[in-house]
Structure formats: C-alpha cells, structure tokens
UniProtKB/TrEMBL annotation, chains A, B, C, D:
SUPFAM superfamilies: Homeodomain-like, Tetracyclin repressor-like, C-terminal domain. It comes from the Bacteria. It comes from Paenibacillus septentrionalis. PANTHER family: ACREF/ENVCD OPERON REPRESSOR-RELATED, TRANSCRIPTIONAL REGULATOR, TETR FAMILY. Keywords: DNA-binding. Residues 1-54 form the HTH tetR-type domain. This is TetR/AcrR family transcriptional regulator. Residues 17-36 bind DNA. PROSITE patterns: HTH_TETR_2.
Length: 180, 180, 180, 180
DNA sequence: AATGAATGAGTATTCATTCAT
DNA sequence: AATGAATGAATACTCATTCAT
C-alpha cells in the first residue's frame, strides 16, 4: 500500500499501472489481487485511510481547542496548524484523498461543514461579527488550506506553524491598516 | 470543441473517449483527426483557450481597477467578481484548465503571482498593513477563489457578486468584531 | 507520376502515402483519383512503364548485337552496357519494377529467358562450350546485373561501361590464370 | 517465431498482421506482446537470427576451405554449396533477412566484403589473374547466389551442389571454349 | 501464499477512398 | 477539372484481471 500510495500520488490514478506497483513491490500481479480486489479498491482503501486520519485529526483539533486557555488567535491557529501537520506527515495519501480522488469534493465539503459549525459556535460566543455568510467563510478556509498545502507546504517553502499563523491573522483581522 | 470540452469537464481526460466525442458530434473518428492532431492536442487547445481568456480577464481587471474611483472594497470586489464571472461563463474550459489539466498548477501559480504584484502595489500605496507574507495572501486568495467556484458558484448557490463581496470583506476586515 | 515514382522508389509501396504524393504535386486527394484508379493502379502503371522500356531496350540490344562486327567480348559487353544504361537513366522506375514490385520476379524470369535464348544461339554457333546449364548461366547474369546495379551503378561507383566490361570478361574467361 | 517467420516470408512485413500470427499460434494478441516488444521487434529478431546463422556459416566455410586438400574448384564449390545449404535449410528467415529486410543491403555488403577478402587472398596466392576489379567480382558472386537461390534453389529446380558446381566452374573458367 | 502464463475488452490512430459541390 | 469534407475498415498496442498449478 505504501508503494501504491507513492505511485498514485506521483502519477495519478490512470497513469499508475498495477504492473508498476507490483514491480516495485517485488511481487507478481496475481499476488496483488490476493490482497486487493481491484485497482479501484486499493485506491479507495488509501482514500479511506486518509479520511480516517483526517477525521481523527479534526476531532483532536476540536478537543484541543476547548482545552486550551490561549488567546483566540493562538487557539484557532493551533487548530489549523494541526491540519497542516497532518498534510505534511501524510503527503501521499493526502494527495490521493484530497486532490486526486473523486471523493475529494465530499471530503472537503465535510471539512467545511465542520469548520462552519465551529464558526457558528464562535459567533454565538460573540467572538466574530456575523455579517458574512459563514458557509462561505468555511469554504474559503478549506480553499486556503488546500491551496497553501499544495503551493507552500509541500513545496517546502513554509512550515505548518507559519502558514496557520499567517492565515489565522488574515482571517481574523484582515488586510486593512488599523488606522484606515 | 464544445462537445469535447463538455465531455472532458464531465469525465476527465482518461475517461473521455474520442469515440464518445465524435458520436455526440455526429461525425466519425477520422473526422476528429482531420481537425485535431491527437486527444492530447485538443485537450491542450482547450487549456490554451482557457489560459487566453483568463489572461485577458486579469488584464481587464487590472485596468478597470486603476480607472475606477469607487471605494477600495468595491474596487477589489469588482476585480474578483470579474474572475468569478469568467468561471461562470466558461465553466467547462475552466474545469479543464483550472482543475483537470496538469498545467493547472502553473496557471494558478501565474495567477497568484499577478495577485501578489497587485497587493504589493496596494501595500506601497499604504492601503494594507504589511505584517503578513503577501505571497501567502495571494496564494490564499487563489485557493479561496478556486474552492468557492467549485462549491458555491458552480453549485448555483451564490452569484459572482455575492462571493466577491463576501470574500473581499473577509480579506479586508477579517472576522473579528470591531469592538474586540 | 514522376512524383509518385520518386516516392515509391524512396519509401517503398506501403510507406508511400497518397497524401504525400498529392502534397508534393500540389493537388488534392480527389484529384489523384481523377487520374488513377487506386494506389495499386499507379504503382502498376509505373511497373508497366519500366517493363516497356526494358523490353524495348532488350529488343534494341538484340538487334545491335547482330549488326556489329566487333569482337565477341565487345559485342556482349555492349549489350550488357545497354541494360545498365537503362537502369542508370531510369533509376526510379527501375527500382520499382525491378526491386520493389511483386512482378519483379516475373520480369527477371522473362529477362533470364531472353538471355538464355541468346546463349543457346551462341552455343550453337560454337562460341561457348556447353558443359554448364545455360538456364543457370542466364539466371546468374540477371543476378549479377541486378546486384551490381544496386551496389555499384546506383552508388555512383562504376559506369555502365566499366561494369559490363568487367562482368563480360568474367563470364567469358573466368578467374583462372591462363597458365593454370 | 516460426509462425511469424512463415507469415513474414509469405506476405512481407506490412501485409503480415499480428492478428494473423496469433491466430495461427492459437494465442491472443496480448500474449504476443508478452514475448515481443512490437511487430518491428520480432521482425528484427528474425533478421538477427538469420544474420547469426549466416555469419556462423561464413566462418565455417572459411575454415573448411583452409583444411581441405581438394582441388581449387572443389574447395570453392564446397564453400558456396555451404551458403546455398544455409538458404535451403532456413528458407523463411533467409527470405526475411536477405530479401525483405532493410538490413538486407547491409548484410549483402558484408557478405561481399568477406568474399572479396577471400578472393584477394587467392589472388595473392597466385590462383587467379588480377585484371578485374575484385569488388565487382565479389558483388557479382553475391548477386548470383542471391538470384539463383530465389529462382532455382527455392523453386526446387536445383540442389545446392549443382548450383555451386555450375557457378564455380563459370566463375573460374568462363564460357569460352578452350580452343577459342 | 504465490506465480507463470494468458486474455477480454478496449482505444487512439491511420489511410485509401468517395460524395456533394 | 478540381476540391472541401468526410468515412469504412483496419491495426498495433495496452492493461486490469484471472486460471491452472
């Protein structure tokens, strides 16, 4: 599965051939089918693996958010950093689950929904003003995470902490100079 | 090309078969090769078409931004709306160029660079504070546009204007209540 | 036809495409079919053209052979030179008729038969001894002409006269030193 | 490979279809590609097989020529007979390598060179006179072998021994009556 | 648990040829 | 006399998958 993940992440679904996977694994093609029902099946397994890790991390992030006594910015930033860390530690299956799979849309939708719930709670707690559509904000956050992961994190240009700090600050305070 | 765009957008590159394109076009396979060198070639043509439209729109957006005397928020919002409108009017080739193609990364990088330049100018003009990395902001904006296009615009849930208004406000002022 | 001859000679039957012929001729494909029934047909026409020229030349050679009063070697050599000259002056159709076509075998068989008749006559006139099979000699002569045309004449290494002199001497006197 | 050789020899490269080869072999098309990289590849393999056999035989012929104590004519005749026997025993790959392939010219050139070397040696030993160009003689011998193989040997009209005897005598003593 | 050997079903591409104008 | 536009029929090659051992 590691080898498959690597190749799927590298070449995409169609351009990854079973023959190449088994060659790198030093087994034969029938052996592959001993362990996986089909090419789709192993791909789906990798997606599910990613989903599970993502779900776990999101759960974790919610908990850690409640526990901490840090400032609002730091708390949110920490939560987002956890997501980036997940992507960093599981680049290959993240590529598959979050970018290559057809489930990606659903996974992101789920993630956005989660974020929206959190935001709603925070609005109710009076942290945020409420004159923007929270579903848009949530979706925007997902888009930002997604794209920064690809262009900054996986490119090795930024750490999870840098990224989460910057985007949290952006999302909280915006770009406008205070004196404007 | 319209038919090809439709099918590529719907099924992706590999799962779009020439036989299906020509069937819907009511011509035979050799006819296809009369007009396009290969499957790759027509795909690339569609990408290039999208690139051209995007470049033109970005150019347009820069000009209109300079001319207008509207408020900062409205000016930026208008620019972003133009991009969303492009995606709305050209959903299929946008899907191909912005999501399906291998050039997508490069196209987005280009777009982010463009946005970064604009931001840099605005920072110099004193509109924005400068304690965030502008390349991250630019990348974030691309991510937001990309993801909102997919989940809100193309889902028919929001108009270009709504989206651009909301995300401009978000990016300018952030989520924090003024009195926080 | 000139253009077709050139391309057939250069690329062979299968690798010569009608599309290439008409492109070089600056006409369209339907125009080709206005003048030739099919690809096979024009190929056959070129073969027939070669056949006609070859027949004419062989006829000529027989006549000239009777008229001349030169020595035996010179007479035979002249006849063979005429054949080489034909190949030299009509390289392209000769390539087609003598090397590329499926009629080539038949054409050569015909040529060998002609030569055999001549040899038989000369044997009867007492010029040659008769302890070798004349059909083999005739066939050998064809083989020699064929191969020297390809390797020496068309390679520009030898003239028709040089070739015919050398092979006539060889066929008449052999390689053995006189004092052996 | 036997079946492929048969079909290539019979129909030529282009008119031999993989589908026909595999049909006669009672396997499917993918099975073909399990053993051969492409149509060109199997064709080349057959050519190489012929080349190898030819080289071996030529080597053999040179050795046997040195050892034997037989008369000059018999020795040369035996050598040539060995070549004819090769063609007889390997008709199909000989057809491919010597007549159908694009390597044929090179193979024959090589063979002619070999023969020329032998002749040069024999001239130096004083057996032959030297007033003819030996490269022409060598090329002529190749032409004779080539053509007699096609018209006499493979037609079943002559045996290797008959052919080699006759052409050796021809090349050594010529056609002229001794008393001429 | 593993594999050597095989295949069903596709899939892009080519090329001689023709039809309507 | 000429052509723009189209096609019928092939054809080499690929790849996920399976069967017998």
């Amino acid at each position: 599965m590691k080898i498959a993940a690597k190749q799927f992440a590298l070449y995409g679904f169609h351009d990854t051939k079973i023959s190449m996977i088994v060659k790198e694994a030093n087994v034969t093609q029938p052996t592959f089918y001993l362990y996986f029902k089909s090419k789709e099946a192993i791909f789906q397994e990798l997606i599910d693996l990613f989903k599970a890790k993502l779900d776990m991390r999101v759960e974790q992030s919610r908990l850690s958010s409640g526990i901490e006594a840090a400032g609002l910015l730091q708390r949110i930033s920490n939560n987002i950093a956890l997501i980036f860390q997940l992507f960093q530690e599981n680049e290959q299956i993240a590529r598959i689950g979050f970018f290559l799979s057809e489930d990606a849309i659903e996974i992101k939708k789920q993630m956005a929904k989660q974020i929206e719930e959190n935001l709603t709670a925070e609005v109710e707690e009076g942290y945020f003003h409420s004159n923007v559509d929270l579903s848009i904000i949530a979706s925007a956050i997902v888009g930002v995470i997604e794209h920064l992961t690809l262009t900054k994190l996986w490119a090795g240009l930024k750490t999870p902490e840098e990224l989460s700090q910057d985007i949290t600050r952006l999302f909280l305070y915006g770009l406008i100079r205070e004196d404007n």
